[in-house]
């Protein structure tokens, strides 16, 4: 299997970054850098302590987040998958998490290239079944997952959380209304968030979103599809996930709308990590179970 890499080379650069491997009963977790033609991509590889070859999942984070995701949901998902014999690789997009480059380099196309570098790394890794690769995407990471899956028909399954879904501005309309003129004037706009310092969104990001036709293009996706959304999500209303399933060409489509859940599935509250983790745990369990089921058959 070969994935498009847009000039990326996937390597473990132990000389650039000190690598610390964490061992647990069910997995081995290793931080690394995927080296590309534009910039390094921080990543964490989680390998299950199980018979190989193992299926594997690439996790794609949302806007203003990082590879571990809000409330460490991706870290928790990686460990849940490892218990089921599934490997995973979670990455930081340009300007996010431990990325050493500016957020101005983050665009839909750069994120797709980073994701394909991660897929190529997994596909070439000993002990990974390159016929059983899947994607998980959260919010804008869900949009990136859609774009990657449309370009790479080898993707067997895709699980999306609170996913952006639409052509053009769609779920990003509020950002365009508030920041697009600034981006055109300066080449970038300083976008403000309640939970972190501002990020500089390039004009290219806005222009690529404007030209995006991912929802219409989902007709080309034939792999299994899971969409999970919160009924109380005010950032990306759950109806976006309904539209996504309607548009997808897959014959295996599952929609789960969680009552009482917001955009981040209530993993945080005003004091930080919420004491009640019932909804996040439900999200993690149903996603892990679904991926285990869809990736269970060994490829030949």
List the helices and strands and how they pair.
Blueprint: E1 22-23, E2 27-35, E3 40-48, E4 54-60, H1 73-83, E5 87-91, H2 108-123, E6 128-138, H3 140-151, E7 157-161, H4 173-186, E8 188-191, E9 199-202, H5 203-211, H6 214-217, E10 224-230, H7 239-247, E11 253-258, E12 268-269, E13 272-273, H8 278-294
Parallel strand pairs: 4-5, 4-6, 6-7, 7-10, 10-11
Antiparallel strand pairs: 1-2, 2-3, 3-5, 8-9, 12-13
Describe this structure in words.
- The chain has 2 domains: 22-167 and 213-294, 3-Layer(aba) Sandwich (Rossmann fold); 169-211, no CATH class.
- Helix content is 31%, strand content 24%.
- It has helices spanning 73-83, 108-123, 140-151, 173-186, 203-211, 214-217, 239-247, 278-294, and strands spanning 22-23, 27-35, 40-48, 54-60, 87-91, 128-138, 157-161, 188-191, 199-202, 224-230, 253-258, 268-269, 272-273.
- 48% of the residues are buried.
* CATH architectural grouping of the largest domain: 3-Layer(aba) Sandwich
Give the overall shape, derived from the CA principal axes. globular
Tell me the number of strands: 13
At the fourth level of CATH, the homologous superfamily of the largest domain is Alpha/Beta hydrolase fold, catalytic domain
